[in-house]
Structures are given as structure tokens and as C-alpha cells.
């Protein structure tokens, strides 16, 4: 979706305080091809529920690093079944067992950490976006997660020119807890991202 920086800024002012379903409906109506990405981390169920309430057939891109916890995998399977998600699974080209044998999970200061991140997250994500070619990308980015994300808003443009739509951008954990409770949705907090190391560190998808 082609929008100028000024148009995005004006829309972000309008969208502040607007219900997520209205933002989602606007984006789907004005875009040509929409996708939602997920890793089934805590509170991801909110964006998955909200988007599929508007369009139940939207492609849900899951880039599975292969390092999720058993709890996350069980949570994912529950949501896939419960919400009827149109899951498009993307995994690294190398198995976790192979990588564990030759590399393991490098520490943040290890030169191999960048290669590790490329293998388990960035390459599968690029492959997914190349295949689907969306112009609208729904995410659950929220203000306060990282310094970089604090510089974004409900609408932002990715480096590849895809409109990122984060309907819950201004929502707090407390507000999301109420949303999940109101819709009877489960949450899962035993989540592990091997590329981040620190909770407030970017993995590379949104920078």
C-alpha cells in the first residue's frame, strides 16, 4: 500500500484510541494482500484473534525457529485449532539438531550470532514474504517493547515498503489481559527466542 510519510503520520493521529478491529478492517479494505505474522509469544493471541475476526482466511505466517518451548508449541496448536488459523509454516533450512552439533546457540558477543539469527529467523521470514508478497503486514508490535519500537506507531513502513499495521500498539499488558479475558482467550508466558538473548533487544525483523 503506497502511503507517504505525511499520510502515515496523519492516519496514526486518527488511529490513536480507535478499536483494533476498525484499524484492521481499514487496512484490509485498502490493501491488496494482507498477512499476519506470529511466533506465538505472550499476547500474540490478541492480534491473531482480532485479525481473524475480520478475515478468517488471512495467511498466518509462522516462522518457527525450532527452539520454542514445549509450552509454546502446545499453545500454538491450541490456537491454530481454536481460531481456525490459516497457518503458513516456515522453518530454517538446517535442522535444529544439525545446528546444535556444529554451532549451538552463540552468545550475543559471538561473531556467529549474526549468522545464527539469519539462519533461524531472518532467512525463513524473507522466504515467506517473498512468496506471499504482501502490501499489508499485521504485527503485534507495542510501544515500550524496545527503543526502536518506541519510534514506530500503529502504522509504519518496513524497509521493503510493506505497510506494518500494529493495532494494539498503544495497549498495555493490563489492557491486553482484559481483552484476552473478555474473549476467553489463553495466553502463554514460557516463551524463548534464541536470537534476542535480552528481552528488549531487536531480532532484526523490524529494524
From TrEMBL:
Entry's Gene Ontology molecular function annotations: phosphoadenylyl-sulfate reductase (thioredoxin) activity
Pathway(s) of this molecule: Sulfur metabolism; hydrogen sulfide biosynthesis; sulfite from sulfate
Domain Phosphoadenosine phosphosulphate reductase: 35-187
GO cellular component, one term: cytoplasm
Gene3D superfamilies: HUPs
A biological process from GO: sulfate assimilation, phosphoadenylyl sulfate reduction by phosphoadenylyl-sulfate reductase (thioredoxin)
Xref: InterPro entries: PAPS_reduct_dom, Rossmann-like_a/b/a_fold
Family recorded in the similarity comment: Belongs to the PAPS reductase family. CysH subfamily.
PANTHER family (UniProt xref): PHOSPHOADENOSINE PHOSPHOSULFATE REDUCTASE (PTHR46509)
Name this protein carries in UniProt: Phosphoadenylylsulfate reductase
Organism: Flagellimonas pelagia
Classification lineage: Bacteria, Pseudomonadati, Bacteroidota, Flavobacteriia, Flavobacteriales
